[in-house]
């Protein structure tokens, strides 16, 4: 298990050394760099960078030639300590992977694995992230990045996610709707037994949705990338957000290859440098980024990152899963709200929106779009559900 943890952790942006790190980027180019850790090598394309220096004075040499790259030998203990330090500094509570492997205890011919704080997830989001880290490592083995890069090169041009939100808001005078195609959730279980993702997507579009969000996590939400691909191939015109737990840059290319126009990045599980790098990669391959925040600390972190155009405020408590829509108003008051307006950032309200009064509340707080799934997908006719949510027909 310990070897597995070391191997999978080497494929993440979090393999970078201690922060801060200075990087120089060049547009419309790419490079491949590799981290060598415990003899496991992982590579992924990003934007071409020059030499970077860590705070301890050590240098990272990144190759400028796509065909020749430097393998960096980074000691596991140093990387792990660096990640813990960075996460603590940025107020990140979700651990990206188990700090320790499950200890083995032998009693005669039997072997026992005992749970402890170091190998047991502290909440559902941490459990999802740990599972996703292993899942992505396995998927990378089956679909190397080179094949995904070719797929993104020939994919249909991405649709204008932000443009669709703005057009809808201007037309209706209400927040634009990102309707979510979601079969289940960890907190609610199965939301709809007769789940047909294509039919639900078409019903959303007919009801006036500006964009669609498609859950692709299989284990916890019973979603799939096949659903995303099927909706795109069915002729649905709404731009599609890939609703996934992104922990590795490889996933960005996979989402784009499957037809996504936008992706979700969750500030609660990604360090600032991860978000910066992934945002730049998304811009390079044509994906819009929606960065999700849950509290004041995450909002402050994201507002300091250049290039952020969409911020989603999730009203659900990550540890208790309780929902309070007043969280949206709290995060948009005072200096934060003013900074958002100055930067021209579109704010998306998420979770806990069931009635026209809920929509009006977050709109008054400063929200320009809302992401809604449960209250719509559970209804027999999601098209009528949208009219009920807004208190009027927004499809015309």
TrEMBL record:
<dbReference type="InterPro" id="IPR011060">
    <property type="entry name" value="RibuloseP-bd_barrel"/>
</dbReference>
<keyword id="KW-0822">Tryptophan biosynthesis</keyword>
<keyword id="KW-0028">Amino-acid biosynthesis</keyword>
<keyword id="KW-0057">Aromatic amino acid biosynthesis</keyword>
<dbReference type="InterPro" id="IPR013785">
    <property type="entry name" value="Aldolase_TIM"/>
</dbReference>
<dbReference type="InterPro" id="IPR001468">
    <property type="entry name" value="Indole-3-GlycerolPSynthase_CS"/>
</dbReference>
<dbReference type="InterPro" id="IPR045186">
    <property type="entry name" value="Indole-3-glycerol_P_synth"/>
</dbReference>
<dbReference type="InterPro" id="IPR013798">
    <property type="entry name" value="Indole-3-glycerol_P_synth_dom"/>
</dbReference>
<dbReference type="Pfam" id="PF00218">
    <property type="entry name" value="IGPS"/>
</dbReference>
<dbReference type="GO" id="GO:0004425">
    <property type="term" value="F:indole-3-glycerol-phosphate synthase activity"/>
</dbReference>
<keyword id="KW-0210">Decarboxylase</keyword>
<dbReference type="GO" id="GO:0000162">
    <property type="term" value="P:L-tryptophan biosynthetic process"/>
</dbReference>
<comment type="pathway">
    <text>Amino-acid biosynthesis; L-tryptophan biosynthesis; L-tryptophan from chorismate: step 4/5.</text>
</comment>
<dbReference type="GO" id="GO:0004640">
    <property type="term" value="F:phosphoribosylanthranilate isomerase activity"/>
</dbReference>
<feature type="domain" description="Indole-3-glycerol phosphate synthase">
    <location>
        <begin position="125"/>
        <end position="386"/>
    </location>
</feature>
<keyword id="KW-0456">Lyase</keyword>
<protein>
    <recommendedName>
        <fullName>indole-3-glycerol-phosphate synthase</fullName>
        <ecNumber>4.1.1.48</ecNumber>
    </recommendedName>
</protein>
